[in-house]
Write a structure and sequence with these properties.
851 residues, Rossmann fold, Alpha-Beta Plaits, 4 domains, 22 helices, 41 strands, globular, EFG_II, protein biosynthesis
């Protein structure tokens, strides 16, 4: 799924201050069929924010036999929320993995649906991830390695802004999804409204597979009607293991109203599937257009075919109430039945020497880049295909966690081959080799030692010293631990994870000078765990500055630093990370770098000028985009446009790409701190000119020397701009989506527009389609959903006093600090909001003086 939402901070609030009513993709599971069907594996992610993600996880563990009692979020007894901060706050902060079997080994599902797929035990690797918007990065790095998803929605809150945000991420990675509408036992739950919001706001056609069963039509929620199998399932209290099944004949006597609605649900389900699937259309025609006679297995197969592409245009919908133990077992069966085998997923993308390919193309050994590399090898003891065949395993490190007893744990997904115990792993990002001494299968805070991690599976490597989130690890038979596999295999990279820029920061002060080293080491551990945190040192004050995605994100980081890692340090007030910009072009500054580096003589020169970025990117030279800035490299002379990497005038150890990379690295380092307030530069265009005849000094010119010359030259240009008053300040402006009731709408719009200097972009009924989506809109009148027995009437398009409204605005981040408390006071505690970085904008005169 390709990231559509802008990379940036997201902060969201709800009652209690922890986004308790916002929803997002959260749970993920990855399946491997056992000996019943060798070689087949499955992966999925049930997802939710606070619509019951961890609660649903606990029920899954209990019904699978993994636990003997049901954990409770309020009691702090859950398996997956095991950090002290998670249990005290009642929210999920970091991803946790658990492995269990469904159905339990040696058994079949408790629900007698007659589905072969759900009667075969599967090994499930479930990853419970956070739902709060400050921890969106935790969700994104888990989405990266998934094959399927279940989005759990709160039946009361419906589809909210954070739901849409994470759904867009799932669209980017083309992850097949099903929806579970949870909390239907709560007052105010509205299944019909939620289903129509799925269609209008997530832009997918809901295929309702289950409908709620209310006692007497308007009583308590006690079960579901199954539109696929044409039966009703009633949970009879207790722990949810006793399920009574009623067929259509029995429903005539027991609940005729549910039977009639179930027939309507089956007709609607077959009708929508026939629009997407010609195979089911043929089956329907064979049964004389009678939807009730279409076999359940044909419907299951059709649903599976329709969601395999991950487009999200058809969304199977299920119903339940996890806290009341209703609907979880059929949900697990649905994951078995509908979500794909990893072999049915798109081929993973890889990069070799900066060029994009598919993993299967590499494994076949017929890539031109492999053939060309083989021709250049001195020893050609293997053919290109044999060369590639020596790759024993290829994996992506998608999460790094620090365990108090086991040390650093690196979570990986294996994409090809297998990773074996004691295998040498080459880190293609850091170009270092490490040994996988221990392999683990995680059970939240517990773990089981295993001998290998096969392709398609998720596992953990304990004890790696260097691996970070997003690194690619390659196991290669007989490779050199210093150089890794032969080129270009040593540059193999699976698609990296994008890290959004932080916009909040706070100062970290060790209690004493002797404690400073320990604090820095702990912060480095925290950065390996969470790359969305950043640490830098203020050159003027010497303070350590910790940057993060939001107020709660930094609060949790402080708690972990002091309480979990026992660091003797304090954190200052949370501040905003501004940016600096160049207002007008500077003159060219040539700098000659001539000093020793690590005891060796180093000498190089280059020329730099800096100006504001323009809209047109030059194509005739080497240009890269970094952190909102543009860097152009002009190489003149014998290394110029008409020369190639193999030009004889170039030193053999200093090819053109190396020179360009070194100059870019130096410019990036200079742009990291502006001359005015030490904020990073943004929207600036650096032009670097390198002449081989004057700037190259034989063997003394190394990449390190080139980087230093580039850094100094760019720094000189920036200082000139500062002396001339041409450095401006920029502030982050946020996209803010506020959900509130109709009665609070006017007050919120006035507050945003006047007191906070924001611009209101749109006012919508909560449930109207998102005009920014690329997918076509869906008419809610065409969406089937059973009527809500407790609905107040008026429909989705008529805004009454209690109607939920949505305000979309652009507001400076400074004005949104502490907005949660203010919003709660304006809305009587019922308002929620989510925000993400839109762009950085130049500060106006009065606002600049205030900063």
């Amino acid at each position: 799924m390709s990231l559509v939402a802008p990379p940036g901070t997201s902060t969201h609030a709800g009652p209690g201050g922890y986004a308790s009513d916002l929803l997002s993709l959260v749970m993920e599971a990855n399946w491997e069929q056992l000996s019943h069907a060798p070689g087949i594996r499955r992966r999925t992610i049930p997802a939710t924010m606070n619509p019951g993600k961890t609660t649903t996880t606990e029920r899954m563990l209990y019904y699978s036999g993994h636990t003997r009692r049901i954990g409770d979020v309020d009691e702090g007894s859950t398996v997956t929320d095991f950090l002290p901060a998670e249990r005290s706050r009642g929210i999920t902060i970091q991803s946790a993995a658990v492995t269990f079997h469904w159905p339990p080994l040696g058994e079949v599902s408790d629900v007698k649906t007659g589905v072969p797929q759900s009667h075969i035990p599967h090994t499930i690797n479930l990853i419970d991830t956070p739902g709060h918007a400050d921890f969106t990065f935790e969700v994104l790095r888990s989405l990266r390695i998934l094959d399927g998803a279940v989005c759990i929605l709160d039946g009361v809150a419906g589809v909210e802004a954070q739901t849409e945000k994470v759904w867009a991420q799932a669209n980017r990675y083309s992850i097949p999804r099903i929806v579970f509408v949870n909390k239907l036992d709560r007052d105010g739950a509205a299944f019909e409204r939620t289903v129509k919001e799925v269609g209008t706001r997530l832009r997918g056609w809901p295929a309702i597979c289950q409908i709620p069963w209310w006692e007497g039509g308007k009583g308590k929620f006690m079960g579901v009607g199954d539109a696929i199998n044409l039966c009703a399932l009633k949970w009879e209290g207790g722990d949810g293991k006793r399920i009574q099944t009623y067929d259509m004949e029995e429903l005539k006597q027991y609940d005729a109203g549910l039977r009639d609605e179930l027939i309507q649900a089956r007709l609607a389900l077959v009708e929508i599937l026939c629009e997407f699937d010609e195979v089911l259309l043929s089956t329907w025609l064979e049964h004389n257009d009678d939807a009730l006679k279409v076999p359940p297995q044909a419907i299951r197969d059709s649903l599976r075919r329709c969601i395999l592409d991950g487009s999200g245009r058809l969304i199977p919908v299920f119903a339940g109430a996890s806290f009341r133990n209703i609907g979880v077992q059929p949900l697990l069966d649905a994951v078995d039945n509908f979500l794909p085998n990893p072999k049915e997923r798109p081929d993973p993308e890889i990069s070799l020497n900066g060029q994009e390919y598919k993993l299967s193309e590499l494994l076949r050994g017929d890539l031109p880049v492999i053939t060309a590399a083989h021709k250049r090898m001195v020893k050609k003891s293997h053919s290109p295909k044999e060369l590639v065949a020596q790759i024993e395993g290829c994996a992506l490190a998608f999460k790094v966690a620090n365990h108090p007893k086991r040390g650093v744990l690196v979570y990986i997904r294996v994409y090809s081959g297998s990773i074996k115990r004691n295998a040498s792993l080459w880190n293609t990002n850091l170009h270092v080799s490490e040994q996988a001494q221990r392999l683990l299968q995680m059970q939240a805070s517990d773990a089981l030692e295993i001998s290998h991690i096969p392709a398609g599976q998720i596992g953990v490597i304990a004890g790696l010293k260097h691996a970070r989130t997003g690194d690619t690890l390659v196991s290669y038979h007989g490779h050199n631990s210093k150089t890794g596999p032969p080129a270009p295999l040593n540059t193999l990279q699976l698609r990296p994870i994008e890290i959004p820029p932080p916009v909040f920061f706070a100062a970290i002060e060790p209690d004493s000078l002797s404690e400073e080293k320990n604090v820095k080491e702990i912060l480095q551990l925290m950065l390996r765990e969470d790359p969305s945190l950043h640490v830098n040192i203020d050159e003027e004050s010497g303070q350590m500055l910790l940057s993060g995605m939001g107020e709660l994100h930094l609060e949790i980081a402080r708690d972990r630093l002091v309480n979990d890692f026992k660091a003797k340090a304090t954190m200052g007030n949370i501040e905003i990370s501004y940016r600096e910009c160049v207002l007008s072009p500077t003159a060219a500054h040539r700098v000659l770098f001539d000093r020793d580096i690590a005891g060796k003589k180093a000498k190089a020169a280059c020329e730099a000028s800096v100006g504001p970025i323009d809209e047109v990117s030059p194509t005739e030279s080497h240009t890269v985009e970094r952190d909102g800035n543009r860097i152009t490299i002009l190489v003149i002379g014998s290394l110029g446009e008409n020369s190639s990497e193999g030009d004889s005038s170039l030193p053999t150890d200093l090819p053109l790409p190396t020179i360009q990379a070194a100059l870019v690295n130096g410019a990036v380092a200079a742009l990291a701190r502006g001359p005015r307030r030490n904020f990073p530069l943004h929207a600036s265009h650096v032009t670097l000119k390198f002449e081989s005849t004057t700037d190259l000094f034989g063997s003394d010119t190394s990449p390190a020397a080139l980087s230093s010359a580039s850094r100094l030259a760019v720094g000189a240009a920036l200082n000139e701009a500062f002396d001339g008053g041409n450095i401006g300040l920029m502030e982050p402006v946020m996209n803010v989506v506020i959900s509130c009731n109709e009665g609070s709408l006017g007050t919120i719009v006035h507050d945003i527009s006047s007191a906070r200097g924001g611009h209101v972009l749109s006012l919508e009924n909560d449930g109207n389609e998102d005009a920014s989506s690329d997918l076509p809109s869906i008419d809610p009148q065409r969406i089937y959903a059973p009527p809500d027995p407790f609905a107040s009437g008026g429909g989705m398009d008529k805004a009454g006093p209690g109607q939920q409204r949505q305000v979309t605005a652009r507001v400076p981040l400074k004005e949104m600090v502490g907005y949660l408390k203010h919003l709660r006071s304006l809305t009587g505690g019922r308002g929620t909001f989510v925000m993400s970085v839109d762009r950085f904008e130049r500060l106006s005169g009065p606002r600049e003086k205030a900063v």
